[in-house]
Design brief:
alpha/beta; six-stranded mixed beta sheet; 38% helix
C-alpha cells in the first residue's frame, strides 16, 4: 500500500515557510535571563549587536494581522495609519530580543507621538510568558502584544528573531532590521528621524 501526499502551491509555500521558521527559531536557543545580573551582562553586549538596515522590501504594506493583548483586545496592524510605526517581532526566550526591549522602550519614550513602537511576542504560550516578563521589566512605553500563532512572523517572512520593520504614516515599509540592533545608537536615531521626516 502506498501513501500519496500532495500540496497546493499555497500550502507548499506555507509548509516551506513554517519549516524555515522552525529552523530559525531553533537556532536562537539562548534563553532569556531571569536575574538582574544576567540582564546586566546582556546589556553590556549591545555594542556587538549586528543587525543591518535593509531597504529591499521598501513599499510593502503593513500586514493586516490582528494581534492581541493579554486581556484579548485586538489590534489590526493593517489599520494603523496616520503616524509612523515601528513593529518589532520578539520572544522571551530569545536573548538578543531581550537585550533590545529596554532600548525600544527608551526609543518609544524619546519619539513620543512621532513614532508608535509596537512589540509583538512570538511566544507560543502567549500571555503566560509575556505578562511576567513585562511585569519584571517595568516598561514605561511598550505594550504586551501577542501573536501566538505567528501570523505576523509568516506575513513578514524570514523567520529570524528579532525582526523590526519601520512603516511610514500610510503603512508602507521604509526599511527593516533582521537580527539584533543597538536602538540607542545615534546612527539608528538619525535613520529613524530621517525616515520619518521624509514620510
Amino acid at each position: 500500500m502506498s501513501l500519496s501526499i500532495s500540496f497546493t502551491p499555497n500550502a507548499l509555500s506555507k509548509v516551506g515557510l513554517a519549516a524555515g521558521l522552525c529552523l530559525a527559531l531553533a537556532a536562537c536557543d539562548r534563553e532569556a535571563p531571569d536575574s538582574a545580573q544576567e540582564q546586566g551582562a546582556l546589556a553590556d553586549k549591545k555594542q556587538s549587536l549586528s543587525g543591518t538596515i535593509d531597504t529591499s522590501k521598501a513599499g510593502a504594506l503593513l500586514p493586516a494581522v490582528n494581534v492581541l493583548d493579554p486581556s484579548g483586545k485586538q489590534l489590526n496592524l493593517g489599520a494603523l495609519q496616520g503616524q509612523p510605526v515601528l513593529v518589532n517581532l520578539w520572544a522571551t526566550w530569545c536573548a538578543p530580543c531581550v537585550v533590545e526591549m529596554p532600548m525600544l522602550d527608551d526609543l518609544a519614550d524619546a519619539m513620543g507621538d512621532d513614532l508608535r513602537v509596537i512589540t509583538v511576542s512570538q511566544d507560543l504560550k502567549g500571555a503566560e510568558k509575556v505578562e511576567p516578563f513585562f511585569a519584571r521589566m517595568q516598561f514605561r512605553n511598550l505594550e504586551p502584544w501577542l501573536d501566538p500563532d505567528n501570523e505576523l512572523g509568516f506575513a513578514l517572512g524570514g523567520g529570524v528573531l528579532p525582526t523590526t520593520v519601520l512603516y511610514d504614516s500610510s503603512g508602507q515599509e521604509i526599511w527593516r532590521v533582521v537580527g539584533e540592533y543597538d536602538w540607542s545608537s545615534p546612527e539608528m536615531q538619525e535613520a529613524i528621524a530621517a525616515a520619518i521626516s521624509e514620510g
